[in-house]
């Protein structure tokens, strides 16, 4: 885990002599204690989530606390499955997120490439309009979008969940930044060889932009996977619910079984964590919208 | 040659069409809608009626106030913590940096709904957080049932989720500050603290501004946390603008009124971002 990232964080001082190193011991102790406190705060909720998912509902509220995993894993899973039909909800979330990533990546990368590498009338105007729209809170578009979907009889469809954010200006902006760095001579050389413009994009430019496209994919995936307000508004049939909507509906019941809620929270969280631990670097630049190189 | 002139338009066409239909049209439509009310089966223009009603709406005042309090308390706490953590991690004295960095970033990977629910369970009267502070001799805190502590709960949860995110942004910027500056400063006799305020902070200003702007837009739209963590309660003490838009739009079906609130948010984002750029933009 550490080896992968260590090249990104270069220690500032390698050259301490023994004397200065000894002087720094109290300072180091202070720093490690700060870090340890924050480490516990960061990690403990995840552990608690796991404890909750494997214990009875009541075990989360005992004093002294239950700190060891229990044996109610299967029971909580079955109860949760009865409440929200896990395979269906998981399918909805994955389907919506994956289709969204593929479609949004196609739309955004093509536009970003055009903005970066072509001169055309209206380019700056359109690009500026895209950028400005990023300042408009999403909620300002919520109600007209809902009315649109309702009039077109598209409520409770995957289309309604996916379509509104397909053109994602932030993704276009970031991809454009990366495309700008691509050498124009290579594009011109390919053009002289007689390659079509789309072919140049797909076979010459895109392959060398894999890290940027990967980061954008993760960014888009997380956006859709975590999306809550919009799916909550356009989906009211439980069989169409995405995971966050289904999870939230559990808390609205008159009797809340915390064991199954914690199971739900775990299922929503653990796959992403594994995915994150494997692809840390791409994930961090993706989540930050490649703000960090 | 004329064919290549069309190409860029073909490339941006899908994005532009989607943008017009799903972003530009709704933005203008909701502006119009904010000047309309639903009467006798249809929407009709009623001028500034919605805005006048908002002006007298106590729940709206509360939502505005709560959003503002959360913004003014949470964003600075989070950014300061992120600065401290990133500086400590960047100080070059430590091992296991990658491990700490990944661990602090981990909360950012959780979905907003999942972590809100997790916190709503941990923060219950008999929940783990009260049990732990009980060991420290602190009396149980009514996290979710008291109007002050409910806001504190949201702030606490948001800080847990987002500090690591900002920390990583700062960490990347810190690595771009040249060591020579620090070495020159320490030759001049400036201590670590002095260096932090005279070198680190000024050098990081653009990045802090960036993080601040992102947090501003995020906080003004705050919805998932109050919806799942406190349900806006108790007694609307954690009602936010985002939650009030949702309630008016999709529980009371007051589309015009909800759009008016949304446009207040648009204006606030504009004003606050402008102020942040003014305050930080003196160079």
What features would you describe in this structure?
The complex is a heterodimer of chains A (293) and B (283). Chain A has 293 residues and is mostly helical. Chain A folds into two domains: 16-77, no CATH class; 85-250, MetI-like (MetI-like fold). In chain A, 70% of the residues lie in helices and 0% in strands. Chain A has helices at residues 2-6, 18-23, 25-53, 73-84, 86-117, 123-133, 139-151, 158-162, 169-180, 184-192, 197-208, 210-226, 229-234, 243-250, 258-278, 280-287. In chain A, helix 9 runs antiparallel to helix 12 (210-226). The two termini of chain A are 19 Å apart. The model of chain A is unreliable at 1-19 (pLDDT under 50). Chain B is an all-alpha fold and 283 residues long. Chain B is 76% helix and 3% strand. Chain B contains twelve helices and two strands; from the N terminus they run H-E-E-H-H-H-H-H-H-H-H-H-H-H. Chain B has a two-stranded antiparallel sheet with strand order 1-2. The chains are: A mainly alpha (293), B mainly alpha (283). At the A-B interface, helix 1, helix 3, helix 5, helix 6 and helix 7 of A face helix 1, helix 3, helix 4, helix 5 and helix 6 of B.
């Amino acid at each position: 885990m550490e080896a992968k990232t260590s090249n990104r964080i270069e220690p500032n001082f390698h050259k301490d002599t023994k004397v200065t190193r000894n002087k720094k011991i109290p300072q180091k102790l202070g720093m490690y204690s700060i870090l340890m406190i924050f480490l516990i705060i960061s990690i403990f909720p995840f552990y608690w989530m796991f404890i909750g998912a494997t214990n009875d509902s009541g075990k989360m509220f005992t004093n002294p606390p239950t700190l060891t995993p229990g044996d109610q894993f299967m029971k909580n899973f079955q109860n949760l499955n009865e409440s929200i039909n896990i395979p269906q909800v998981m399918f909805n979330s994955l389907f919506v997120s994956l289709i969204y990533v593929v479609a949004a990546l196609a739309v955004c990368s093509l536009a970003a490439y055009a903005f970066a590498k072509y001169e055309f009338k209206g380019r700056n105007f359109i690009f500026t309009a895209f950028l400005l729209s990023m300042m408009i809170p999403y909620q300002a578009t919520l109600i007209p979008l809902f009315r649109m979907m309702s009039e077109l009889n598209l409520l409770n469809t995957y289309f309604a969940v996916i379509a509104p954010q397909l053109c994602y200006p932030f993704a276009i902006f970031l991809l454009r930044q990366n495309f700008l760095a691509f050498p124009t001579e290579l594009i011109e050389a390919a053009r002289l060889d007689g390659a079509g413009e789309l072919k140049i994009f797909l076979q010459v430019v895109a392959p060398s932009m894999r890290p940027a496209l990967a980061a954008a994919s993760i960014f888009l995936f997380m956006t859709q996977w975590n999306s809550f307000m919009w799916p909550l508004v356009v989906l009211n049939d439980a069989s169409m619910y995405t995971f966050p909507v289904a999870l939230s509906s559990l808390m609205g019941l008159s009797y809340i079984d915390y064991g199954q809620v914690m199971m739900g929270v775990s299922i929503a969280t653990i796959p992403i964590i594994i995915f994150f631990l494997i692809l840390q670097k791409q994930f961090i630049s993706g989540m930050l919208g490649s703000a960090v190189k | 040659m004329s064919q290549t002139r069309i190409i860029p338009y073909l490339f941006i066409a899908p994005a532009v069409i989607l943008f017009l239909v799903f972003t530009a049209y709704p933005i203008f439509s909701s502006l119009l809608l904010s000047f309309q009310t639903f009467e006798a089966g249809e929407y009709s223009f009623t001028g500034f009626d919605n805005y006048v009603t908002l002006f007298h709406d106590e729940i709206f005042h509360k939502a505005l106030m709560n959003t503002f309090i959360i913004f003014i308390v949470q964003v600075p706490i989070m950014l300061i913590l992120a600065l401290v953590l990133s500086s400590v991690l960047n100080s070059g004295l430590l091992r296991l940096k990658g491990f700490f960095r990944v661990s602090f970033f981990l909360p950012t990977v959780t979905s907003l709904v999942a972590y809100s629910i997790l916190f709503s369970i941990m923060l219950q009267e008999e929940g783990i957080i009260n049990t732990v502070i009980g060991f420290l001799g602190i009396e149980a805190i009514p996290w979710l049932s008291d109007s002050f502590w409910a806001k504190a709960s949201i702030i606490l949860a948001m800080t847990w989720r987002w500090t690591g995110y900002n920390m990583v942004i700062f960490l990347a910027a810190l690595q771009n500050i040249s060591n020579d500056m620090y070495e020159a400063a320490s030759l001049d006799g400036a201590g670590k603290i002095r260096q932090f305020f005279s070198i680190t902070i000024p050098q990081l200003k653009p990045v802090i501004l960036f993080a601040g702007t992102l947090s501003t837009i995020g906080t003004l739209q705050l919805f998932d946390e109050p919806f799942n963590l406190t349900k806006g309660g108790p007694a609307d003490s954690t009602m936010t603008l985002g939650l009030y838009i949702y309630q008016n739009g999709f529980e009371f079906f007051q589309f015009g009124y909800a759009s008016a609130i949304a446009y207040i948010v648009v204006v606030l984002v504009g004003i606050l971002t402008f102020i942040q750029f003014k305050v930080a933009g003196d160079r």
